[in-house]
Amino acid sequence: MGYDEPSSKRHATEYEAEPLAKPKKSRVRLILLGLLALGIGGYLAANPDAWQQISSLAGGVQQQAGGGRGAARGAGGPPPVHVATAETRDVPVVVHTIGNVLANSVVTIKSQVDGPLLSAGFKEGQMVKQGDLLFRIDPAPFEAAMRQSQAQMARDQAQLQSAQADSDRAVMLADRGIVSAQQRDQLVANAKALAATIEADKAALERAQLNLGYTTIRSPVNGKTGPYIVYPGNQVHANDATGLITITEIQPVKISFNLPQGNLPLLQARMREGDLIANVAIRSDVAINPTGEEGDDRSFPVKVDFITNAVDQRTGTVELRATFENPDFRLVPGELVDVTVRLDTLKQVATVPREAVNIGQNGNYVFVVGDDMKAQMRPVNVLFQDQTISALGSGVKAGETVIIDGQLRVNPGASVLVTRPEGEAPANASPQAAGEPQAAGRQGGGRTGG
Asked: Is the pTM of this model over 0.85?
């Protein structure tokens, strides 16, 4: 029998043999690192500028890391801001809205009698004047009815003459006692009844003449005709719901627009003075001439002549209308236009860029930068503002410097760093700050004026 080694010794031998493989992996890593170092060295030797870029990048990362540690210790610099100077000027108080062009009147032409439509005296889309012939309806039945009424009245007139003569004789004979009073009264009443019949015949004749006149339809207004609703040759009926055609009066036209009810006092004041003018501008998507060039006639003033008598409760606005003569038919009913109304002019008030005004819990405020380069928080009274400026009633004086960008990083009473975007004129700041280099401010460094 041979001798068998204990299993523990065999396992120990296997475990001791494994570390022999580690030096092979280490040698492979060293070879790879060497090849990588040679490659980097060759690249840097072939590209000298690459080493400078790597050095500057490493320096920037180190500087940012140092800045972060400084900020953590509370040693950060003042926040950079952009500023502007408050000015004094006259500010027109204007409001802008969208208006709608309305026809001065819209008339639907309807037939007042029944009959076949014989002809039309116009073309679709033609301009017509008041009294122009529009349609003709067959007049033959109405001419016959008129002749019948005339004959009826002639017969009744002849009967009236005979009854009147009998009445006169009966009155004379009754006075002599030849005819009784009853016969006299009967003959007089008969004459009066025939006289009333004549009046009814006259009314019937006038009605027949009117119906005959209705067979010729004329335009009641000056305007532009629309498309035919009923074409000639069709049978028409009195007061059809659809009518025959629609005429739109487009000289003049009305421009309707709405403004907030808060402007009503100023609107009424200007209306009383007769100086409420709306400047109407045709929208840019409407071509004025075939060449597409915009001329001076794209915008024009129109006098406002109507303010509604009630505020729309759904929108809180009031409707205004201005009448425009529309001499060259430039406006069409239903068209949208831009409307600008000057309500007032603020004389010599302080103005700042709109971006300078902030809204807080206590109302509007601005940050003012003093000569010590510290931000002061001031409440302001905004009289009017548009897309570019805000007119202030109090809080800021002309010549003071206000912050227009970077307010979120500013604390009242803290120092700020006035910067400006590259290529712009230097921001208005204190004399001390004006002499400092602006490049340092753009990099987040520089000194404060405090």
From this structure: no
